[in-house]
Amino acid sequence: VAVQNDSPTSGSIIITTFPTPPFCCHAHLHTMDRDQLLAVARTFNSRLPVSMEIYIGVERTATDIRRDIELLV
């Protein structure tokens, strides 16, 4: 599984690969609770450049984290 993003600062294309998908589909993402979304975000963050990581501070709600995951994929 791979995610492709453009870098606004350098104009380059960033391709991030994952050995297994952290969730199966959009519907699955919407059934996840905050802890499950945190696990998905941590999986992404373990492979993403620091500037693209999903912020997962304690004040972030499940809705916030889900929205950031959706923006990424």
Labels describing this entry:
73 residues, alpha+beta, two-stranded antiparallel ribbon, 3 helices, globular
Structure in a nutshell:
With 73 residues, the protein is an alpha+beta fold. The chain has helices at 26-31, 34-45, 62-72, and strands at 2-6, 13-17.
Task: Describe, in plain words, how this protein is organized in 3D.
This protein has a domain at 22-72. The protein is built from three helices and two strands. It has helices at residues 26-31, 34-45, 62-72, and strands at 2-6, 13-17. The protein has a two-stranded antiparallel ribbon. β1 and β2 (13-17) form a beta hairpin. α2 (34-45) runs parallel beside α3. The mean pLDDT is 90.
Layout of helices and strands:
Elements: E1 2-6, E2 13-17, H1 26-31, H2 34-45, H3 62-72
Helix pairs in contact: 2-3
